[in-house]
Amino acid sequence: MAEQKPVTLEQHLAASGADKKLQKLISSFAYVALDAQHQFPKYLRGTMGDRNKYGEAVAALDEWVNGYLCDSLVKTGLVRKIYSEELKEPLLAHNDAPFVVAMDPLDGSSNIVSNNAFGTIVGVYRDDLPQTGRKLVAAFYKLYGPVNTFVYTVGKGTHEFVKHYDSEGRAQFLLLADNMKIPEPGEVFGLGGDPVDWSPLFLRFGKDLFKKERMKARYSGTFVADFSQVLHRGGIFAYPSTKKSPRGKLRLYYEAQPMAFLMEQAGGESWSGSSSLLDVVDNDVDARVPLYMGSRALVKKVMTALNGMTVNHTPTTIVKK
After folding, report:
1. pLDDT computed for residue 171 by the predictor
2. pTM reported for the whole predicted model
């Protein structure tokens, strides 16, 4: 029996039935982000000496990757506007282009100096923000780990590709996992924030993951990396509301919505404290949101555990019952 020929990212996109312009945008970004990784060693150390719009120190690699990816997106001619964690104002590109992009260009930049995994998160819309995640037409992430992987959805499942080189040394992305399904009930969890600042309800839930669920803790400080573990092995990732950050830490449009789209397309569940993360909308494009996502059974359990509080997202505040 002949060995089945590997499926390329381009072939998979074509078979997805997605709009051809959307196919081009996704494929172009996969390879542009690959090109960017080749430059990472030049920018692994140091900061820019200033702070971003959130008051956080800007790593040299953060600044460079943001500029490189924004320039590359503009050059496709397919992007009308770009929202980025590293931009003080959205970048206006082509007025007649079909897509609006929201991205975290370098997720996990605190791991740069220690050479731990980090990644890139992108959400694609047709209409301008603010929008609910139901309006996403695509979401994808790159994980820069021991191998370079690319995971995408256009609303027809979640699919993983891995970087390979052909016989002539040209990079290509080949299908690694088609139509991924998050395992149930799962075996790993990652919980963000300082446990001292967690609510008593969430602290009890976290303890139960050890004591009752017998799960393994996995938290790296890079959302993409922790999400990838949960997606492959099943479990839950959460960055809850805390005393210091009642609205959570992760950002709704740059991080939460794209990853929730990927998770739900893989058969998992997402929750903001009051609804699916895909149903949350906030007029502030830099809004943060409490985030819980993973295997359905565990997300249901955190919903039950936190039934003493709800979250109102317009504006996003924690409201005690």
Report:
1. 84
2. 0.90
